[in-house]
Design goal:
By secondary structure, the chain is of the alpha+beta class. It has helices spanning 2-50, 59-62, 65-71, 95-98, 101-108, 145-168, 173-224, 231-262, 276-287, 305-322, 377-387; strands spanning 75-79, 86-87, 113-119, 122-130, 137-143, 271-275, 292-294, 300-304, 329-335, 338-344, 391-396, 402-409, 411-414. α6 packs antiparallel against α7 and α8 (231-262) packs parallel to α11.
């Protein structure tokens, strides 16, 4: 009897601990990913566009960045290297004082660093990021009281389930099933909350499309009469039109990412025959006519042409933007049942430590390859690759430049 009780006890405790660890890890990872993406957008996009190389305390208010932080309900502490730092709210902790030495060291190295802390009995997730110019350090705080409360409730549910199993054993099997159902409901609620957040991002992006489209037309109409404006105002109109178009592109890319987030792993592919050499020449003709194409003639494969074209086009755009479009070469070959397409440029390359980060959303932290892009192109390519069960890899070329390859499982229609 004691052996049976012991086995039941160990099994119940192990299962409860495993379930709690899985749910806790998943929930925390979701919160962390969202906070890091928010920090990269705030610092890598908004702050870079609105602030200069040297940031003074009043610049954040004057640039409108402070109002933007307040509108998006972001608590921030900005260390500008002086005695008068910027704080977005009354209860925001002093960033440099609450983070660990390890986090501070990662920040000093130019990385985006995150840390779970508790100050004044309030739990926070703090994400620290430095402007590429080094002019200011941003500490963005997310209060995670609701997350901790949900995990505490889940811990109680699991403890109760384990206790019931230990006390009643096999006799109370129906009770165990009931508790398991409660756990499933809790997990479903957490999953539903994540889905609601994704829908919120998609809805916001959709709502932005109409006013942004109107802004594009209005800017274009203003630019059409630019020759009638005084010389000193023409540059302002040109900048306005360029910024509005960039905003339009950003909204469109956010919408595309939202659609990709909503797609599950079993999305139906639109399989078509693709003649590889002609396909690559068509992409190059639209995106970068000066690029070279090296592909075996007569090779036809069956895959989702639209998704493959989106991936290759974004890789070519990345080479044009960050590699300055110099000596870009597209290579294609078969490796067993896998089609390998590589896009190589002669740009400055990427530090080895940041190679895997270039596929993250809003990844524009490396100053060597910082450009006018939104930082979403390679992230969109990665999401399309996920749907195709493909893999994206980047490497620095020994002779200089960056090479990014996509490896796509395909069916060969006509062999070499």
């Amino acid at each position: 009897m004691l052996i049976v009780v012991g086995v039941v006890t160990v099994g119940a405790v192990a299962l409860a601990a495993l379930a709690f660890a899985l749910v806790s890890t998943s929930l925390r990872a979701e919160v962390l990913d969202r906070a890091v993406e928010e920090a990269r957008f705030t610092v890598g996009v908004l702050a870079v566009e609105r602030l200069g190389h040297r940031v003074r305390p009043g610049d954040i208010e004057a640039s409108g960045l402070a109002d933007d932080l307040r509108r998006r309900d972001i608590d921030a502490y900005v260390d500008v290297g002086g005695t008068d730092d910027f704080v977005s709210g009354l209860d925001v902790p002093v960033g440099p004082e609450v983070v660990s030495a390890e986090t501070a060291e990662l920040l000093a190295q130019g990385n985006v660093a995150a840390q779970w802390i508790e100050t004044r009995e309030v739990p926070y997730l703090v994400v620290a990021a430095r402007l590429p110019s080094g002019g200011a350090d941003f500490y963005l705080f997310t209060e995670v009281t609701d997350v901790e409360r949900a995990l505490d409730q889940l811990r109680l549910v699991l403890f109760g389930a384990s206790l019931v199993v230990v006390l009643l054993g096999g006799v109370a099997g129906w009770r165990v099933a009931h508790q398991a159902g409660s756990l499933a409901d809790t997990i479903d609620q957490l999953t539903a909350a994540r889905d609601r957040e994704r829908r919120f991002v998609a809805d916001v992006s959709h709502e932005l499309r109409t006013p942004v489209t109107a802004l594009v037309h209005e800017a274009a109409e203003l630019a059409s009469g630019i020759e009638h404006l005084p010389v000193e105002q023409r540059r302002v109109v040109e900048l306005l039109e360029e910024d509005v178009r960039r905003l339009r592109d950003l909204v469109e890319e956010l919408l595309e990412l939202s659609r990709l987030d909503a797609a599950d792993d079993h999305v139906e592919l639109d399989l078509r025959d693709v003649e590889v050499e002609r396909f690559l020449h068509a992409v190059v003709e639209r995106r970068l006519p000066g690029a070279e194409v090296w592909a075996p003639g007569g090779l036809t494969v069956r895959t989702d042409r639209r998704r493959l074209e989106r991936i290759v086009a974004n890789l070519v755009d990345n080479a044009r933007t960050h590699g300055e479009g110099r000596d870009v070469i597209l290579r294609a070959e078969m490796a067993g049942p896998t089609l390998v397409i590589e896009v190589a440029d002669r740009g400055p390359g990427v530090p080895d430590a940041q190679l895997q980060r270039i596929f993250d959303r809003f990844a524009k932290g490396d100053t060597a390859r910082a450009g006018v892009g939104s930082g979403l192109g390679l992230a969109i390519a990665r999401e399309h690759a996920r749907v195709l069960r493909a893999a994206l890899n980047a490497r620095n070329r020994p002779e200089g430049g960056l090479a990014v390859e996509v490896r796509v499982p395909v069916t060969v229609v006509t062999d070499l």
